[in-house]
Specification:
Elements (H helix, E strand, L loop, with lengths): L15 E2 L17 H6 L8 E2 L5 E3 L26 E10 L3 E9 L6 E9 L22 H9 L2 H25 L6 E5 L2 E5 L23 H17 L2 E2 L8 E4 L2 E4 L6 E2 L6 H18 L7 H11 L9
Helix pairs in contact: 2-3, 4-6, 5-6
Amino acid sequence: MRLHDDSYAPVKTGKRHLGEARERSNRQFDDDESNFAKRGRRRQLEVIDETPDDGQRWSTWDQSTAGERGPRPHPDWLVTELAAVDRELGVLKTGKEADVFLVERAVPDTDRSCLLAAKRYRASEHRMFHRDAGYLEGRRVRETRTNRAMASRTAFGKEVIAGQWAAAEFGALCKLWQLGVPVPYPVQILGTELLLEFIGSADGTMAAPRLAQLRQDTADLPDLWAQLVEALSTMARAGWAHGDLSAYNVLVQDGRLVVIDLPQIVDVVSNPQGREFLTRDARNVGTWFAMHGVVEADGDELARLLAADAGLRTSSAI
């Protein structure tokens, strides 16, 4: 993988106590030691004050609650030790609402490490919620003032939306992972930062290519189409549409298809435009595969299949 930017913004670091009281005598008091001396004896606390180097931070694993971590059992490759350090390696992707960074989480002086994709939603003044009104249907909150702030796109409203998008994506990834849909394993969420499984080479030098960037002469496109139909069908049976699916939101790693970028995931039942989003997803990918020679690919037929899987009534518009 060629990182888009060889530099990276340093991550704010903090201080952590690495040790506690360790000066505890295991020996028994001498029989002739006075009771006063026994009562006056005090344990000493040894505190080691260390800070990670620039561009690093302590692992944030312990800052996320149980409900903000990925499904159990956690994969064997995932580093959950609290002594681990996160080191930012570079930028994987920049987008309209969020940027994605490559992060290594490793325990110093051990062979325990893993690579993560850190998806961070931008500050409200730098964020562009592109065509988001339709996606937010069905995501209203109880507070009227909050709903008004979201509708008018105030700074506070955008922060609420960012939180909803991050939470919606993380929650959907957790459920889809458990259903067997090919998505990155969702490691944890902390505020508006999502830490996800990195899809790419083991050493982080090569990210998995997007479907649109795949070399057509080496790819088994009919098999990838079949994988995608199965993934979308599983999502539809669970009541969801991707909402913004295209050949740019699908990765291919060693012949395996992985669906990504799900902050705008749509509940096709509660969202009044659910069918439209589902149909658009199907037509987008169906058209791409058909244009690249997959004779089985038919966006309209896929839309009808997904609508049936989702339990939606047959529509003549499809």
